[in-house]
Amino acid sequence: MGKIEIGENAGKIWRALNEVRESSIESLADKLQLKEMDVTLSVGWLARENKIVFSEKDGKTLISNCESLNFAFG
Question: pTM for this one?
Answer without folding.
Answer: 0.84
